[in-house]
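step=encode ok
step=design start
structure_in=
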C-alpha cells in the first residue's frame, strides 16, 4: 500500500497505514438510537410546553380562581357521584331531585381525574389549564413539523398560535371554567390533528375528538374533517381505512354513550343536557337557542365589530361583548393565500365553516369575553389554513401579522387585569 502511495506522489507513515488498515466499527445499538431520536425530537416540544405553560401562569392563571367548577365534578366522580352539592351557586348549576349538577361539558373533569386523585379539592384549575395550554403549543409545533414547514416560518407560526391568537388570553388570563373549556378543547383537537397527519391510529383520534365533543358539543361539526382525512387521504403505511375508522368510532362511540348516560342520570333524559336546561327560559333566546334570526347580529360581531374608542391610552376598549376575529387573529389574513386544491386545506376550511355556522345561528355572543371566544373552538383548523397560506406569502407578512396579534393579546390581558373583570 505504501509503494502504491509513493507511486502517486504520496507519503504514508506506518501509523497512518495501521489506522487505514484497522477495521471500521459502527455502533448500531437500537436503544442508543432511540434515545438520540427522543432527545432530538422530544426536547424542543418539551421545552416549548414548559415555556408557554410558564407564560400562561405568569399572565394570570397562577392566581387561584373561584370559578373552578370542574374541580368539584372531578372530585365528585372519584366519590362515585355526578352531583356537586357543595359547589357555590354562581357556577350555573341545575337543580334536580334535591341535588345540583353542572351545566358545562364534562370533558375537563375526566381529564382532571388523575390529578384530582392526588390533590382532591385542592387541585389548582389555573395550573391545570395553563399546563394543557403549554401542551397544546407543543402539539402545534409537532404538527408544523409534519406539515413540512421550514424552520423560520415554523417558529413564527408557533408564536402566532401561542401568543398571537386568542389562545394566549384564554389559556393565561385566569384559568376560570369558561376559559379552561376552550383550552382543553383546543388541546384535544390538536392531539387528534397531530395523529391524523401522522400514524393515523384510529383509537387515539377517536378518543381525542370524543373528549373535545364532551367539552364543547359544537365540535360534533368538526367530524367531517377527521372522517374526510382518514377516508379520502390515508397516510402511506397507515392501517387500512376500514380498520382505522373502526378504531376511530369505538372510543368515540363509547364516550358519546357515556355522555348520554351522564345526561340521563343527572337530567332525566339522555338527549337533555344541563346547558339546555340552564338556558331554557332565557329572554335573549326567545327564538330558541339556535335560529337563523340571530345570523345577522352574529355576523356583525364576528367580522365587523370594533373596540370602543377612548380619548386616552390605550385608546381602545375591547368591551366584554367582543370584537371582530380579524382583529383578534390578524394572521387569519394569510389563510387567503392557502392552496384550496389540497385536501387538507379543503377539510380544514370545511371544519371552520361548519363550527362557525353553528355559532352564527346561536343566540348568545359569548359574553363576557375578549374577542369572540367561541372562535377558539375552530382555531386549530384556522391555524392549518394560516400555515398553508404562510408558505405562499412574503417573509414580511407572517412576522408582521404575528406581532400585531401579540400586541392585541397583551392589550387584552393587561386591560382585563386593569379593569378587574
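sequence_out=
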Amino acid at each position: 500500500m505504501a509503494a502504491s502511495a509513493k507511486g502517486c506522489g504520496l507519503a504514508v507513515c506506518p501509523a497512518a497505514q495501521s489506522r487505514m488498515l484497522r477495521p471500521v466499527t459502527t455502533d448500531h445499538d437500537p436503544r442508543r438510537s432511540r434515545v438520540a431520536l427522543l432527545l432530538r425530537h422530544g426536547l424542543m416540544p418539551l421545552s416549548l410546553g414548559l415555556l408557554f405553560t410558564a407564560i400562561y401562569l405568569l399572565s394570570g392563571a397562577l392566581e387561584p380562581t373561584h370559578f373552578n367548577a370542574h374541580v368539584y365534578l372531578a372530585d365528585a366522580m372519584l366519590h362515585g357521584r355526578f352531583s356537586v352539592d357543595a359547589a357555590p351557586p354562581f357556577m350555573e348549576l341545575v337543580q334536580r331531585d334535591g341535588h345540583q349538577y353542572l351545566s358545562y361539558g364534562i370533558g375537563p373533569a375526566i381529564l382532571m381525574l388523575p390529578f384530582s386523585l392526588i390533590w382532591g379539592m385542592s387541585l389548582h384549575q389555573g395550573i391545570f389549564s395553563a399546563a394543557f395550554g403549554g401542551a397544546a403549543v407543543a402539539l402545534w409545533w409537532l404538527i408544523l413539523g409534519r406539515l413540512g414547514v421550514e424552520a423560520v416560518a415554523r417558529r413564527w407560526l408557533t408564536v402566532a398560535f401561542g401568543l398571537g391568537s386568542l389562545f394566549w388570553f384564554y389559556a393565561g388570563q385566569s384559568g376560570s371554567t369558561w376559559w379552561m373549556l376552550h383550552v382543553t378543547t383546543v388541546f384535544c383537537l390538536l392531539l387528534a390533528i397531530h395523529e391524523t397527519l401522522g400514524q393515523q391510529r384510529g383509537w387515539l383520534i377517536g378518543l381525542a375528538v370524543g373528549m373535545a365533543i364532551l367539552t364543547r358539543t359544537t365540535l360534533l361539526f368538526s367530524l367531517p374533517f377527521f372522517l374526510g382525512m382518514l377516508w379520502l387521504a390515508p397516510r402511506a403505511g397507515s392501517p387500512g381505512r376500514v380498520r382505522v375508522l373502526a378504531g376511530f368510532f369505538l372510543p368515540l362511540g363509547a364516550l358519546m354513550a357515556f355522555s348520554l348516560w351522564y345526561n340521563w342520570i343527572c337530567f332525566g333524559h339522555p338527549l337533555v343536557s344541563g346547558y339546555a336546561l340552564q338556558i331554557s327560559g332565557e329572554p335573549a333566546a326567545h327564538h330558541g337557542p339556535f335560529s337563523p334570526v340571530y345570523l345577522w347580529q352574529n355576523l356583525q360581531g364576528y367580522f365587523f365589530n370594533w373596540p370602543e374608542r377612548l380619548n386616552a391610552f390605550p385608546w381602545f376598549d375591547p368591551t366584554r361583548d367582543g370584537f371582530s376575529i380579524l382583529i383578534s387573529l390578524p394572521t387569519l389574513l394569510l389563510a387567503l393565500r392557502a392552496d384550496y386544491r389540497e385536501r387538507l386545506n379543503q377539510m380544514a376550511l370545511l371544519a371552520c365553516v361548519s363550527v362557525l355556522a353553528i355559532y352564527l345561528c346561536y343566540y348568545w355572543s359569548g359574553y363576557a369575553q375578549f374577542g369572540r371566544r367561541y372562535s377558539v373552538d375552530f382555531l386549530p383548523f384556522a391555524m392549518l389554513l394560516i400555515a398553508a397560506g404562510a408558505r405562499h406569502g412574503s417573509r414580511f407578512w407572517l412576522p408582521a401579522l404575528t406581532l400585531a396579534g401579540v400586541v392585541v393579546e397583551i392589550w387584552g390581558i393587561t386591560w382585563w387585569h386593569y379593569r378587574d373583570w
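step=design ok
step=annotate ok -> The first strand starts at residue 93 and ends at 96.
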